[in-house]
From TrEMBL:
Major enzyme class: ligase
Positions of transmembrane segments: none
Single GO cellular component term: cytoplasm
Organism: Rhizobium pisi
Biological classification of the source: Bacteria, Pseudomonadati, Pseudomonadota, Alphaproteobacteria, Hyphomicrobiales
Reaction(s) catalysed (UniProt annotation): biotin + L-lysyl-[protein] + ATP = N(6)-biotinyl-L-lysyl-[protein] + AMP + diphosphate + H(+)
UniProt superkingdom: Bacteria
Record-level Gene Ontology MF annotations: ATP binding; biotin--[biotin carboxyl-carrier protein] ligase activity
Domain BPL/LPL catalytic span(s) in chain numbering: 15-189
Protein name: biotin--[biotin carboxyl-carrier protein] ligase
Alphabetical list of Pfam families matching this protein: BPL_C, BPL_LplA_LipB
């Protein structure tokens, strides 16, 4: 119990089910939520046959990488869920940092939660949610980290941990992720700790002050990346002192 009376989150609050193969760890978590699982469940798989990224993109999921999803049930009031992707990014960054050698390229986060090493993508994070028939809300955090394999992705430069000199296995990296996520979710505190999370995110952010293009569903907007606001929204300086707040989009540098 914390000094303020709230219940602290610890490693013992989480369970882990390791699968050899599944269509998608996110889909597996959602199926378990629909079947009544109480949440705080990690599902990992050595291989996915139907992994997916944002906007329904295929996520190549061969053996040798880490594929993990965390099922959370009613993790926060709906109005405070917007900062959760930032918290997840902070946790993943913390876990990868533990296995990178000292000479690796810079490890950074690209808004909102892509993990880059030397400006090359090494991790994708997909957060999905669904209201359940019994009134609960299931939120699934899917995390795919390139360890020894990487997709041929024309959208972004990509890398993997092996290219950066890291020798960690998927199991070792997941152990770090398991611990880091419990720590960060405790700090996030159902969205009440958004101030600390955004401060940590800013310390590891990539490209603040640089020219970026943000692809939205209906258009693309360019400007200077002015950072994030206290709720985690991207702030885009489009010129003449006008700052636009963006809740979701694909960011490209230059």
């Amino acid at each position: 119990m914390a000094s303020d009376g709230r219940r602290r989150i610890s490693l013992g609050d989480f369970r882990h089910d390791a699968l050899s193969e599944t269509s998608s760890t996110n889909s597996e978590c959602l199926a378990r939520a629909r079947a009544g699982d109480g949440g705080n469940l990690w599902v990992t798989a050595e291989r996915q046959t139907g992994g997916r990224g944002r906007r329904g993109r295929l996520w190549v999921s061969e053996r040798g990488n880490l594929y993990a999803s965390l099922l959370l049930i009613d993790p926060a009031p709906m109005e405070r869920l917007g900062s959760l992707p930032l918290a997840v990014a902070v946790a993943v960054h913390q876990a990868i940092r533990r296995v990178l050698p000292p000479g690796a390229e810079p490890l950074e986060v690209k808004w909102p939660n892509d993990i880059l090493i030397g400006r090359k993508k090494t991790c994708g994070i997909l957060v999905e949610g669904e209201g359940l028939p019994d009134g609960r809300y299931a939120l699934i955090v899917g995390i795919g980290i390139n360890i020894s394999e990487m997709p041929d992705n024309p959208l972004y430069p990509v890398t993997c941990l092996r290219q950066q000199g890291a020798a960690a296995s998927p199991e070792e990296l997941f152990a770090h992720l398991f611990a880091a996520m419990a720590d960060v979710l405790d700090i996030w505190d159902q969205g009440r700790g958004v101030g600390e999370i955004t401060a940590r995110w800013r310390e590891i952010a990539c490209g603040v002050g640089e020219k970026i293009t943000v692809n939205l569903p209906d258009r693309s907007i360019s400007g200077q990346f002015a950072g994030i606001d206290d709720n985690g929204l991207l702030m885009l300086d489009t010129g003449a002192g006008r700052i636009m707040s963006i809740a979701a989009g694909d960011v490209f540098f230059g």
